[in-house]
From TrEMBL:
SUPFAM superfamilies: RmlC-like cupins (SSF51182). This is Pirin family protein. The lineage of its organism: Archaea, Methanobacteriati, Methanobacteriota, Stenosarchaea group, Methanomicrobia. Belongs to the pirin family. Gene3D superfamilies: Jelly Rolls (2.60.120.10).
Length: 340
């Protein structure tokens, strides 16, 4: 088996492999904000409520006055939201809330079912509000599909980072969102996560390579699903192949993979893990093991609202000044420093 299985151009969303279900790369050049944390520009002629067309550098997605994703349900999997720039206001049916961004990661287990909103508040009125993030969906095994919903914050200042210097003195900086790299372990994922068991070899890495830097990703197992997403830079070389930016490289899981950056700084996302060897049936916001379970999910949501919606609007944003915070369903509050 060769090191490289396939190379394909990235779309929206990115193609993924089991145990990952979905990966969206959101990158929007939002303008200055107004007093309501929305864009301080006209939104005329946009298809508000379903605005996925990049116009003037940004999209409103399902938001009408503030960009983002108002109240919507999930069941049967996890969302891992990896921010790079900009901010997200979280609200959910458990009564939890938070503001995070600029390198923070939110790990949410939908489990038996919850609703949440993910809004992108434009908190700066004196400058632009660029946003860049990845939202990754990680499947749950059948035994954990109905675990209690949970969310946890992995704050940027706590996420471990390893700097690897090659023989030429060029550096690669590796942020460890999940798993281990060079003996350094990530923060704990959610307790019911497929990533919580080390034998599942789940690894999520954000990689920043200096020009011409060289970095080796160690082989793990023949059964591993390994996908490297090259999303910014001029070129990388891997397995003797030159790869242009905005491509996905599917790699053999058992072999070491040495990546060499081109003449520009190169940014990559690595998603890898052992597959969950169970049926996957996905319909909209629900991921279960059978069509009957999908049907039941819709019935349960219509009957219970997965706990209801405790917020007065479907698209809440938080009047917290410019501070990051997490308020959990059990009443705990974790306050962090101001946004930049």
């Amino acid at each position: 088996m060769t090191l490289i299985r396939t190379i394909e151009k990235l779309g929206f969303p990115f193609a993924t492999e089991n145990p990952f279900l979905f990966c969206a790369h959101h990158k929007d050049a939002y303008p200055k904000g107004n007093n309501n944390l929305g864009p301080a520009v006209s939104l005329a002629d946009r298809n508000l409520g379903n605005d996925f067309t990049l116009r003037d550098g940004f999209r409103m997605y399902h938001g009408r006055s503030v960009p983002g994703f108002p109240e919507h349900p999930h069941r049967g999997f996890e969302t891992v939201t990896v921010t790079i720039k900009g901010y997200v206001d979280h609200s959910d049916s458990m009564g939890a809330a938070g503001r995070y961004g600029d390198g923070d990661v939110q790990w949410m287990t939908a489990g038996a079912g919850c609703q949440h909103a993910e809004m992108f508040p434009l908190i700066h009125q004196d400058k632009e509000n660029p946003l860049e993030l990845f939202q990754i969906w990680l499947n749950l095994s059948k035994k954990d599909k109905f675990t209690a919903p949970n969310y946890n914050m992995l704050w940027s200042e706590d996420i471990p980072e390893v700097t690897v210097t090659d023989r030429g003195g060029r550096a690669s900086r590796v942020r460890i969102i999940a798993g281990t790299f060079q003996g350094v372990e990530s923060l704990d994922p959610a307790p019911a996560s497929w990533a919580a068991d080390p034998k599942n070899h789940v690894r999520i890495l954000l990689i920043r390579m200096d020009p011409e830097a060289e970095l080796t990703l160690p082989g793990v197992s023949e059964s591993l699903s390994r996908n490297l997403y090259f999303y910014s830079g001029d070129a990388i070389t891997i397995g003797g192949e030159s790869v242009a930016p905005y491509h996905r490289i599917r790699l053999a899981g058992e072999d070491d993979a040495t990546v060499t950056a081109g003449s520009d700084t190169c940014l990559l996302l690595l998603l890898e893990g052992e597959p969950i060897h169970e049926p996957v049936v996905q319909y909209g916001p629900f991921v279960m093991n059978s069509s009957q379970e999908i049907h039941q999910a819709y019935q349960d949501y219509q009957r219970t609202g997965f706990g209801g919606w405790p917020w007065p609007v479907s698209d809440p944003v938080h009047d917290t000044g410019k501070n990051r915070f997490a308020r959990y369903a059990d009443g705990r509050v974790d306050r962090r420093g101001p946004v930049r």
